[in-house]
Structure formats: C-alpha cells, structure tokens
Amino acid sequence: MEEGGNSKKSIFSRRNFLKASSVTLAAGAAGQFLPTGSKGTRKALAQQAKPGAATKKFNFCGVCSANCAMVAHIMDGRAVKLTGNPDDQIAHGKLCVKGYAALKNLYDPDRLKYPMKRTNPKKGPGEDPGWVKISWDEAFNLTGQKFNEAKEKHGPESIAIFSRPHDWIHRLGKAIGTPNLIRHHNTCYSNQQAMWRACTGQGNRPWMHDLANAKYILSFGWDLPGKAKNMAARDYVKAISNGAKAVVIDPRLSITASMADEWIPIKPGTDLAFMLAMINIIVNEELYDKEFVSKYTQGLDQLKAAVQDYTPAWAEGITEVSAGTITRIAREFSSVKPASIPSHKRDAGGPNYTNSWRASFAMIILNALVGSIDREGGVIFERTPSMVSFDSLFPAPEFPAMRKERVDGFEKHGIMGAMGRGDFSTITDAILTEQPYPLKAALFRKHNVLAFPDAVKFTEALQKLDFIAVLDIMPTEIVQMADVVLPEPYFLETAGMGNRVYFAFYPQIALRQPIIDPLYDTKGFGAIIEGIAKAMGLEKYFEGVSGGKLRQERLKALGTSWEDLNKSPNGMWADKKPFKPTEKFKTKSEKIELYSTALEEAGYDPLPYWQPRREAPSDNYPFNYIIARPPMHRMTESQNNPLALQTYSENTAIMNTGAAHNLGIRHGDEVVVESRAGRIKLKAELTNGIRPDCVCVFHGFGHWSKDLSLAYQRGANDGDLIPRINIKEMVALKDPGAGAAMQDFGVRVYKA
Amino acid sequence: MKYAMLIDETKCIGCQACVVACKNIYEDSAFGALRTRIEKHETGCYPNTTYRFRKFMCMHCLETAPCIDICPTEAISYVDGPDGGMVVIDREECVGCQGCISVCPNEEPMMDPEDNTSIKCTFCAERIMAGGIPYCAEACPVGCISFGDRKDMLSMGNARVRELQGKGRPMAYLWGTKDTAVLYVIDLDPKVYRLPAEGYTLSSSGLEVLPVPGAVAVAALGGAGLHRFWERTREVQKNQKK
Questions:
Q1: Each residue of B219-228: pLDDT tens digit?
Q2: Are B50 and A692 in contact (CB < 8 Å)?
C-alpha cells in the first residue's frame, strides 16, 4: 500500500492503537473469532474452535437511510461482528460493505468524546479551534445563551437549523420561531420527490423497486448496485442471473453497466431527449399497456400531442445515440413484461442538471406506459405502518408566529415548497449577502460542509455567523467550524425502533438495542435538543416527550409494545399483509397524471417538454463533470474508517484513456480539475469505461479536519467545483424540486 | 470431506463486503494487508468496454502447494492431508522469510510488516471445523460466494456454467476444477481475470492436464533463487534475535 508521507505517519500511529485493541480482542475471543491460522489435523482444529460465547443484540444500520436490520455479536463486552437480520425485508440476512465496516466507526479513537468549546475565535481550514472540554450544563447554557442573544437582537429567523427532518428538531424550530430548517434534499432527491407527487400524489420515497421480478431493467444513470445498496444489489443480481435483460444508459461504465447486457454512453445531460423519443415511439406505435393506461392514467392524448416532434432522429442529434438504438430500446422496453426504470437520488432524474426534473417526469411516464407503477416487477410504493404523530401525542403550547420567509427561498417552489426541505445551493449567498436577512447563529447536525455546493465558499460564509453549535459523532469539518460541540452516541450505542421504509412490501419494524454501553460522555439526539430548549427557556414545548413515550404509543397503536418488541426472538415486528396493487392514486383524478394538473396549478409545464441543460461544456471548460460514489464509502462520513479506507483510500479524476493521453496525462499523474467555482488536485485514473468528454470524481474525500487522523488530506472534495446558485437564479430555473444542478457545468483538466 | 469455495464472478458487484468482513475479524495489523482482495479487470476499447471483478485470495492448491514445500519451519500445512482443500498458516511458526511469497504462482501470501509474518486466507479453518462457513461467504450480500463439499461446489459451478451458456454467454466456464480448492465461475477469457488459462483448458475442453502452476514457479526459482531465499531466512532470524 503506497501512501503519501503525511498519511503514512498517521496510519502507523493509528495502527498501534488498533494493534493494542486487537490484542484485547484476541484475549477474550478464544479460537473461534481470531484464528491465527492453525496447523495440524482437523481434530486439533476442532478442539480449538470453542463453541461461540457470543451474545447477540438487535440493531438496525444507521450508516445509510436504508436501515438494514442487523445482529450484533458481542464477546466479553466488545462487539466483534455485525451480520444482517434474516427476517428483515431489506437486509435478507446480509449487510452491505458499509454496514460490515460500522464497528470501526463505533470504536474509532478519533470520535468526539465529551462536550467542547472553542477558544480560538478564528475559524476555517488550518485553524486549530483550541478545544476545551466542558460539562454538558455549560454546553447547553452557552448554546442557549447565544441562540437567545441572536433571537433578541436579530429575530428568531436569524437562527438556522441544518439537520435531516426529525420530530424534535421540527419542534425546536417552531418553538424558536425560525422557518429555517435547512436540509440537504435539493442536492439529493427533491426533484424526484416533486415529480412523484405531481404525477401520482404519493411516493414519499419513490425508489422502492421490485427488481427481482423484473424482466427488463432500463437504467438512466441508476447505479445502486454500484453503491452496494443492499436490496438493490441483491435483487439486480438476482434479476440478471435469472435472465432479465439490463440496459444501462450512462456516460460512465458503472458497476450496474458492467453487469448489464448493454451499455450506452449517452452525452451527459441529454437523457431527457432519449426518454422523450422513447415516449414518442411507444405512444405512436401504440406499444403501451392499453389496459393499465386506460384504467389508471389520464392525459395520454395531451402527451401524444406533446411528443410528436421528439422523434428518435431528433434525439440522436442531442444524445449521440443512434435513432435505431433508441427505437429498438423503446420497443424492447414496451414489449417485455415486467419492464421498469428504477430511479434513486443522483441518477438522470436526480438534481444533476436543470432539466433533470423533466427527466424524472419522463421516467414516471415511461413506467406508467408499460404498467409498472405499483405493480409486480416495477416501482413500488412503500407499505409502512401508520405512525402516531409526534404533534398529536404531544400537543404543543401555541408557537410564536413566523415573522419572515425562509432564508434559502425554498418555499418559493411549488409542490415541494410546502414540504420544508431546504436549499443547499442558495444558502451560501444568503449568508454572504445577508439577503433576504442576516443569519447570526446555527445548529448543525451532521450536515458537513463538504456536502454543500461550492463547499469552500460555504465554509467562508459560516465564518460570518456569530455562533455555531454542532451535534456530531466524528470531529468532521463542520465540527471544526463549531463554537460548541455536542457529541452524540453512535447508532450502535442507542435504543429505538425503525420503520422499514426503503424496501417495504408489508409493514415491518426493526428493534434497535444498544449493543454495548456508551463508550463516551455523549447524549442522545432528543436529550440534546431538549437540553438546548431548556437553556433557551423553551422547555414547555418539550414537556413529557422523553422517556420513550413516543415509541411506546406508536407500537401500542399497532397492537404491540416496546416490551414485546424487545422480547421478540428476531428483533422484528411485522404485519405480513399480501401485496395489493394500488387502484386509486392520490391525485385529483385518482389516476397517474401523465398530464399533471398539480404542476399546471403550481405554474410549471404540465408535460415533460424538452429543455437543454443550463451549462454544457465550452471551449474554456471542455469536459463534463460526473460525480459518483464508491460502494464502500458513505458520503463524507466513512473516510476515517480503516476498513473502508483500505478498500478505497483516495478519490481520483477518472478519465478516458485516449482523451487523457491527448492531454499528455498518464495513469497516476497529478491533475487539476477546474470549474468556474473552484479547482481540485487529484491523481488521474485512466479507463476505457467513460466517455472521452467526461471526467468523473467520487464523492466523500478531501477532508481538512486534522482530527480525522486517517481521512485527513486524502483526495479532494468534488463539491469544491459545484457552482452555488442564488435565490433569484434558482427561482428563474423553474424547477419544482429546486435541484442543485450538481453536474450542470463544464470543467477543464490539466497536468498539475 | 474435501472442501471447496465456489465464487461466481458473474454475480460479483465488487463491493468488497467480503474483504471488509474478513479484515474486521482477523485484524491483521498492517494497513492494506488483506487475506482476500477484490481486483477489477477492465477489457475492451471504448465504447466496447466492460470489466469484471475477481475475488483474489489464496487458491488453496490441491496436493502440491508450493508454499508448503518451501516453508522452512513447516508453518504452512494442509489440514487433514493434501486433498482436503485447506492450506493454513501458523503465524507463530512463521519466521518471515518470504519463501512462500516467492514461490506462489498466485502472488500470495502477503507480508504483515508489523510482525513480519506471512498472512493469507486459511478458509477460516477453525470456523469450518466448528461447522461454520468462511466469513467472506457469510457476508456476501449478493450470494456469489459458496463454500462446502467440493462435489457440491463442482456440480453447482457446472450447473451455473451451463445456465450461462444457455443464456448467450458462450465463454462461461468453471475455473480451477483440477488444481485448486477455489473455483471461479467466469464468463470472459481467464486472461481478463488475470487467471492462467489452464483452468479453462482443464474444465471445458478436457485437454491434457497441464502442470500445476505452482510447480512451474518452484522450478523457475532454481538454485540462485533458493540461495537468496535462505539468505533472507537467516537474515530475518538474526534480526529477530537482536
């Protein structure tokens, strides 16, 4: 393993720690878990293999939102192994590579161990925060005092909360009176979600697919098997092993593409044209599923009229895929049953280009035309148990009225605006220009600065805030920007329950037990939020919410209890109802709306007309920029995990061999990738599996926090190149999901 | 019973769950010292490109494992004889001479630089003896690793090859049927996977049995090579005494 000078040093000091910890393990684990490679006869080996003394605990994975149910194997108080829960519909007894590596996060010596405050007022890369250990009381009081100062001087909306949606955080935001709950969705899936709502009225998380029963799988950049997403990988492999045909349309030869029957390297940002031409063929040649379309959809005539100009010959000029190929795929897709187009987050329907929402729209239409929406082998709506809501169980005293609109302008977008969510692209300019009003304080939970478009500028913008409190597990970059750090336990140290949402054919709940006692002086998320609320004098909004009442009431409503779930032999609760396909959809017409009245009412095109991407490559920036993810890393959270790092240790600039040679770039050369927003330096990785006009960078690297001893300075952050967008520009883009256009710009590449 | 591991590379997504599950348990001290690894092998010119993964590990040579022959301290041995399918290493006996590394046709084992011993896959022999399966086979989320009775693995592998050939993959075959306890189902030329072609020759066309790959490497090492190897052994032993 060849490493740079700096990282080598840190690895070896880190290794010494691990060595020490593995000795402890060896002492306790006897022969079964740590064989040193014995010699001799089978009898001797068998004698050495003592019956397992491991105890088991149930948990579910918190590495990604799929939440695979897991079994933890504990020996002498130490968790030695995680396996998948066989009775979970998501896990099927297995975990993905990230789940198997999670114990290394739990036992990471770099973890946040106690509350801290900074003593160095200067913030940013290269600044040592000068951490001082403080008590929880001091941490809460300091946070409460600073938030109240901001509230009094500048109004409650001067406080922003950056966090994923969560009952406690919603309540805190409302109690403070700030509309600014800012989430990552417009860099993730808000435009796909907007389109599923517009066309079907449902699809809270529109990415559950019955791939195992599909006979024709058409991917537009969808690469969940390549990201090792458990259920998608398992079912894709099952489908193609059983003879399903897979076609992948992607500028890059993804893992999904490498296993498919056909890889079509389409010109980036033009998938919409390919889809429109497919619709043209399927509608004009009447290849659609007539029964499904007449019974469950409306708007076919308007759709037919709208796509008449979108012939395969027209699409060939845009996509660089031959008209013959497009026609053939349209005919195959509509003749083999079940056929479906899976879609999940950052594929052609994700927030990659300014026309991606239309591509997401066209994918839904294509799935509807072949009768694959909520039908076997197609896209499936999740079957989740209905849950008692936090607000109905704990009615709040009257909240203060909101005085202002959101600082990121997210409510300006029809359909999604009402859902809150948030805009990572516009927030940087909002802070820097103090428009529409100044932000003064922020609470962050795990949203790292590396995840924001134009991450460098966002980090600068944060320096304008008077006070930042951060809840986290690892000393990430956002922690380096904090004034107060509030450490949370790792999910394996916590209790709870998890609705099966990512892959739920029937309602099912998984139990989360703490697999070991907490290693450090951490507090659970709810307790931290309540602590801050109390310090702000807002405790009346949180009366009675703690103590597990929410989960108890939720389980009671389902006819079970927290005690029963804990006693369950498999750590699961399930209501195995047979799958009943949806007959009535939640739109006005109760049908899938190919012509979307919801979009029309919100002022958007009601049909997926062609629109080119915003910023195609130019003479100055001749390459398309593609962002992808390696299977073993979870966003920016896993680069300090020695297991993840050993299998993928640093990201690269992935380029076509021929195109790179034309620029004098050889495999392993240091190159600069530059956009109008910034520049990053990486090693070139040459392959024939990418279009010559593309450069691809994997997400998650480029950490600058010195406290991440293994991740520090490995690779570069793809996000440094993504231009931010201001609110005015975002509104002008007229994207119902306010997608962040994460790839809609050109880059240049040259030898460093 | 003869054991074997069947790896269906037509199903491998290259995620490295097997690598991580293995290293999580064995915790061999060096960063990057892995008993199993995933290699990615690309083939073809753009746009007719594809790639395949190969789960890289000790092949557990049957009968004539060159590492066993060369090991001066008998640290490497078969479990229950040369046809049992398991080659294990006792690292307490290993003096770090790297002889095994020099003769292995498969570029295994690896050195663990911290304690200066060889590491390699042992098929989790202790687990097997206790009725379990190797950690990698347990972990694989797409089910491309099977472990068990060699006869079963051969018939599963052959059935899968027939199935693939019937589905328009004429190059599908089972690699390793004669020489090794590791069997691969592959659907492209073995060269793509950096596998010697012998496996293909043996399993598919029934041609004359070629020499065990390891034996060739041992012969090639010859006089000078062996001399260097013993020199190295003595040097290592001397260092350890210091």
A1: 333 333 333 3
A2: no
Closest Cα in chain B to A255: B13
User: Using the beta-carbon criterion (under 8 Å), do B42 and A688 form an inter-chain contact?
Assistant: yes
Note whether A664 contacts B: Cβ–Cβ < 8 A. no
Confidence at residue B114, expressed as pLDDT on a 0 to 100 scale: 77
Give the whole-angstrom CA distance, residue B129 versus residue A283: 62
Average pLDDT over residues B24-43: 86
Question: What does the DSSP assignment read for A200-256?
Answer: HS--SS--EE-GGG-SEEEEES--TGGGT-HHHHHHHHHHHHTT-EEEEE-SB--HH
Domain containing residue A676: CATH number: 2.40.40.20
Distance in Å, alpha carbon of B36 to nearest chain A alpha carbon: 11
Whether the predicted pLDDT of A289 surpasses 50: yes
Confirm or reject contact between A237 and chain B (CB < 8 A): yes
- Residue A533 domain flag: no
Which among A39, A632, A689 is the nearest to B15, CB-wise? A632
* A137 assigned to some structural domain: no
CB contact under 8 A, B14 and A31: no
Could you tell me the pLDDT band of residue A36, with boundaries at 50, 70 and 90? Answer: very low
The tokens describing A535, both together, are: 């310090």
Q: Please tell me whether residues A654 and A560 are part of one structural domain.
A: no
* Top-confidence range, A702-706, B21-25, B198-202: A702-706
Closest CA relative to residue A736, chosen from A453, A181, A357, A422: A357
Residue A465 has pLDDT above 60, yes or no: yes
Average pLDDT, chain A: 92
Most A CBs within 10 A among B121, B129, B188, hence the mutation to make, goes to: B129
Q: What's the token pair of residue A179? A: 């509309």
Four-way CATH pick for B3-62+76-91+106-210: 3.90.420.10, 3.30.70.20, 3.40.440.10, 1.10.10.10:
3.30.70.20
Average pLDDT in the A670-691 region?
Answer: 98
Side-chain-side CA neighbours of A362 within 13 Å: the count stands at 31
What amino acid occupies position B238? K
Chain A contact for B111 (CB, 8 A cutoff): no
Contact A2/B at CB under 8 A: no
- pLDDT tens-digit readout, A161-182: 999 989 999 999 999 999 999 9
- Closest residue, chain B, to A655 (C-alpha): B46
Q: Which pLDDT band, with edges at 50, 70 and 90, does A47 fall under?
A: low
Interface contact flag, B91 A37, Cβ < 8 Å? yes
Enumerate the residues of chain B whose CB falls inside 8 A of the CB of residue A691: 46-47
Question: Among B34, B60, B126, which would you mutate to test the A interface (most chain A Cβ atoms within 10 Å of its Cβ)?
Answer: B126
Chain centroid offset of residue A444 CA? 17
pLDDT exceeds 90 at position A424:
yes
Contact criterion met (CB < 8 Å) for A100 and B32: no
Same domain as A80, residue A22:
no
Co-location of A512 and A632 in the same domain: no
Among chain B residues, the shortest Cα distance to A227 is held by B15
Would you call B32 an interface residue with chain A, using a CB distance cutoff of 8 Å? yes
What is the per-residue pLDDT for A417? 78
| β-pair partners for A652 | A683
Task: Give, in order, the Cα–Cα distances in Å from A731 to each of A413, A416, A596, A641, B162.
Answer: 7, 13, 20, 40, 57
| Contact between residue A593 and residue A297 where contact means Cβ atoms under 8 Å apart | yes
ipTM reported for the complex, 2 dp = 0.92
Distant-in-sequence, close-in-space partners of A564: CB < 8 Å, separation ≥ 6: A555, A573
CA dist B89 and A111 (Å) reads: 35
**pTM (two decimals):** 0.91
Expressed as residue numbers, the domain containing A559 is: 54-100+490-522+547-575
DSSP symbol at A579: P
Interchain CB distance below 8 Å, A228 and B17: yes
